[in-house]
Amino acid sequence: MHHCSDAATGDAGTCGSFCDSKIGRVCRRPSVPGAGGRHDPPDERRTRHRRRVAGQRRAPGSAPRPPPGSPGGCVRRRLRGQPGRECDHAGPSAGHLLYAACNLVEIGVAAHLLRPAVADDGLLSAPSVVGRFIVVCGLVAPALSGIGGAATAWLVFGQDFQGSLVSWILSDGLGLLILTPFFLALLRGDYLRCFADKNWQQRMEAVGLQVLAASIAYGVFFVAVRPVLFVLFGPVMLATFRVGRLGTTLAVMGIAVIGTVATMQGRGPIAAIASDPREQAVLFQFFLAGLLLTCLPVAAALSARGARLTSLSRSAEALRIQGAELARLATTDALTGILNRAAFRDAAKVAMQDPACAPLSLVALDLDLFKQVNDRHGHRAGDQALVHLVAVLRAGLREYDVIGRVGGDEFLILLAGNDADQAGLVAARLGDALRRSPLPLDGGGALSLSMSCGVALHRPDMSYDDFVHAADMALYAVKRGHRTADFAV
Fold first, then answer.
1. Domains defined for the chain, CATH in brackets
2. Mean of the pLDDT values across residues 82-101?
3. How far apart (Å, rounded) are the C-alpha atoms in residues 422 and 428?
4. The whole model's pTM is what?
């Protein structure tokens, strides 16, 4: 009994006939259909051979198994620890969909964690925000999505889980750190807004700095014969100081585009350091991330300092406006808007000491029968009468003539460059204007008003109180004369 092998099927068996060693130990035995002999039909032998090679023998009636190269079959093989070569290229569509889902998770996590910073003053506006951006985009989001990505690489493509996880975190983390600031600012319109807010000189400076950074990058990647990547830190930092974080991100993106083109063509320092494309990509990403993360904290600090200076400037302006308002309130009569007693006193003292104001006259006046106006028509009508009087006085005086309210219905007018006679004529003209301008009342009708005036001329030996007293005495003389004249000197 010889042990023979079937040349068609590779099966070993025993037979009762002899074997011819010269023809490859093919057993010359009678053909028995279905017994696995060499004389079985060719289709049956090929089917049996494929099942043996693929390990697909199954019991009759059992459920069909997935094809060897399908995603489901590959996942079952990975879980059983039986990877097959056909799984390395299995299910590209399913694997890519899983990768896309992981990337969406990554973007969602980063957007959710960075939303407070973006909603406040914008991304990278302060050093604390830069730290949060680095942690979220460089570690947290890539690590969470990397678990799914590494699991997909292991189950679907047969790659090492730990190595895939590390590669995912590095590549996606660096990519987020480099691209997120640029595209976020681009989509928010920050570049256009920043450009529009600058004057033409600042715009030319910003464009010039970007051209400078791009030119130096071209020289580093296409012209220089030695790796001089450190040279790129200079123009990027200059753009940071002069333009801010937007200048930084735009300059880095320009360098990224130029460096990518050069590296793909096998030129530049990155291609000289590493020959493997994947290693080149990782090294270039590390360089860009280092360049960006070196300048962004500086940009954030400058932005925060600028924001503080702007805030201080606004506070100073608000204090100045508030101080001016307080000064106005302190020197202005609240009802009529002219100078109050203290402010008029200060203005008069200055004019009395200024020779350019000589001759200087003072007019003291009050409304006639003002108490009767209050008693008959109410205090509201009395207030309206005072406001109406001031309006008439302003209309009949020069712009630089000074008016002050020193009592209830008592007013003083300082007339520079007018002697007593000229001041008397001004007082008479004002009295006529008031009589021709009756006050309209709320309930209908009009109220006729008149005033009495006293005029005094300033002398060098007079004090302010003496000056006012002289004008008051002239006013009282008109009143004692039962208002037969509008003024007295």
1. 1-54 (no CATH), 92-306 (no CATH), 341-488 (3.30.70.270)
2. 65
3. 10
4. 0.52
